[in-house]
Design a protein that fits this description.
- The structure is a single chain.
- With 106 residues, the chain is of the alpha+beta class.
- The protein contains four helices and two strands; from the N terminus they run H-H-H-E-E-H.
- The longest helix has 15 residues.
- The chain is globular and about 45 Å long.
- The relative contact order is 0.12.
């Protein structure tokens, strides 16, 4: 995908710091450019509002009328973002240095 080459060029040219926020937001832009059906005006407004809370990255993941909104932000922005998204279900996660692991076996 051209996106990988674009990021590589940005990193080499010093145009963009390697930061997950920048990558998520650029990825969302590319997704919108590929199809206007990948989102809706209401969802875009919500995503833009979350981005305006500070150094926040937002990306829609999933397809077919389902999925989730991935939000990455500095910890000091979490409460404002949670309040803004209070009508949605929160699914907290954290990164592991162990790699893939089974965390639920129901």
């Amino acid at each position: 995908v051209d996106y990988v080459e674009e990021l590589e060029d940005w990193l080499h040219d010093g145009k963009m710091a390697f930061h997950p926020v920048n990558i998520l937001n650029r990825s969302s832009e590319i997704k919108r450019e590929m199809s206007e059906k990948s989102s809706s005006p209401d969802i875009e407004a919500l995503m833009n509002h979350v981005r305006s809370t500070g150094d926040s990255g937002v990306k829609l993941c999933g397809a077919g009328g389902g999925g989730f909104m991935l939000v990455v932000s500095e910890k000091n922005n979490h409460n404002a973002i949670k309040q803004e998204l209070s009508s949605l279900c929160e699914l907290p996660f954290k990164f592991s240095l162990k790699g893939s692991e089974i965390i639920y076996n129901g």
